[in-house]
């Protein structure tokens, strides 16, 4: 009976508790401003990330994740006079590269 209850408990545990979502965060710098504002905004949001191109980061966030909400979060962390973010879905290649360890994220 106790074994049955334990098994039932494990099956009732949500499997997505530790799942994550990968996004691309694309920063547009205002001319003649410090480009480090984009990196700083990513770091202030304390998410695993990696810059994969100039002003393009992969960010990993806890699921379920809303792309528009993360765009707002990043833009709230940088003054609009310095630049802004656009957040899009990561490509399948991005997801595979992170999953395989080809791209390692930092925090």
Describe this entry's structure for a reader.
This protein has 107 residues and is an alpha+beta fold. It is built from four helices and four strands, in the order αβαββαβα. It has a single domain (16-100), classed as Reverse transcriptase/Diguanylate cyclase domain (Alpha-Beta Plaits). 36% of the residues lie in helices and 27% in strands. A four-stranded antiparallel β-sheet has the order 2-3-1-4, covered by helices on one side. Strand 2 (49-53) and strand 3 (56-62) form a beta hairpin. The longest helix is centred in the first third of the chain and has 11 residues, at 2-12. The radius of gyration is 18 Å and the shape is globular. The protein starts with a helix and ends in a 7-residue tail after the last helix. Mean pLDDT is 87; it is low at 1-16.
Query: What portion of the residues fall into strands of 2 or more residues?
Result: 25-35%
Figure out the total of helices.
4
Strand order of the largest sheet: 2-3-1-4
Give the helix level as a range of percent: 25-40%
Average pLDDT metric: 87
Give a concise summary.
The protein has 107 residues and is an alpha+beta fold. The chain is built from four helices and four strands; from the N terminus they run αβαββαβα.
Please describe the topology of this protein:
Blueprint: H1 2-12, E1 20-29, H2 36-44, E2 49-53, E3 56-62, H3 67-76, E4 83-89, H4 92-100
